[in-house]
Design brief:
Three copies of one chain form a homotrimer. By secondary structure, chain A is an alpha+beta fold. Chain A has three helices and eight strands. Chain A has a single domain, classed as Sandwich (Jelly Rolls), CATH 2.60.120.460. Helices cover 26% and strands 36% of the residues of chain A. In chain A, the strands form two sheets. In chain A, strands 1-8-3-5-6 form a five-stranded antiparallel sheet, covered by helices on one side. Chains A and C meet through strand 3, helix 3 and strand 8 of A and strand 4, helix 2 and strand 5 of C.
């Protein structure tokens, strides 16, 4: 079994942003030289997520709207008694989930025709990290 | 390390449907001859999901109802400016998540007594695919 | 490739409870002697979840509140026609997801500074199980 680990750093301009990282992850898979295996893409912060969906601007704004409906930005989260103001970001991260496992077949990400991998930042404008860890052979 | 990859095709009669694929996945695990490892079951389309829960009709209808409340079918999603009408299916897919990783122990799916694996179709009536990829030894 | 499998038992005092299992899982990783790999932590019951987030009491109560808003305790779930009363627990489990995959690097959980692993019980006060399965080398 081989393994390959890299870290991706983000520092988004906006507080909330979806960043398409498909090509970056694909490049890491190629440099791992692993032909068959799994690629874990996992946020290392608890106010960010990783998900797979469509690269389409309308949809991205629909996703933000849904998450804002289900876990709205609010002043009165109990978490804010610590001095933080990012309670909604923790909740949004839980809902989209903080990680995906991507299959690797024949040395490439084995994704469907429209599947793209996104880093979902819900409390940005500071340096945050994602781990990309590949195991296989 | 060994790996084993298969693809499952679906073409559901209804637009929205949950299909129990536990036995099919179990069969694939057996034919992989992998005794200890992980089995990734992952939708390759962005309007479908995969989840683990109970085979009980009342519950399945409760799950649909919850998803319809949280991500309702609507005409006015921004995604629909592209000509699509399946914005809700993308959002429902995000909420249930598009994949699970099933543990394999002693050559079998190591699931709890009531755990069943479902393909969740939210925009069906056309051919769609799920990857089942097993790695281990 | 090596593998290591353990089961964690829970019997929570309260019906709903989040239990921080980070140290327990870390100990299992150490005893596996696997240096590079993946650690799957997956609930074996369909009314419980596993998630990664912050060890902060205010936030934990915010998470419960959000889940209660999105999937409230109710008498009239269709699932209750079977005699059960835990429909909300199934739905909450779906929303937080029932599993995580933790990266292992250099023999340790490769988590971000604030990431903690939680068992999320939504229908407790009875014995329930989580599988921790590690593969790698």
């Amino acid at each position: 079994m081989k393994s390959h680990t890299e870290y991706l750093w983000f520092n988004t301009h906006k507080r909330r942003e979806f960043v398409n990282i498909t090509d970056t992850v694909e490049r890491m898979v190629r440099s791992s030289e692993i032909k068959e295996g799994f690629c874990l893409v996992s946020a290392m912060h608890i106010t960010a997520g990783v998900f797979v969906n469509d690269e389409e601007n309308g949809l991205k704004s629909d996703i933000f709207e849904m998450l804002e409906n289900l876990a709205p930005y609010r002043k009165d989260y109990k978490h804010h008694l610590t001095g933080e103001d990012n309670g909604d970001a923790h909740l949004k991260s839980l809902l989209v989930h903080h990680q995906v496992v991507l299959p690797i077949t024949d040395g490439k990400l084995d994704l469907g025709p429209w599947q793209q991998v996104f880093y979902a930042e819900f409390d940005g404008q500071r340096r945050k990290r994602v781990i990309v860890k590949i195991i296989g052979e």
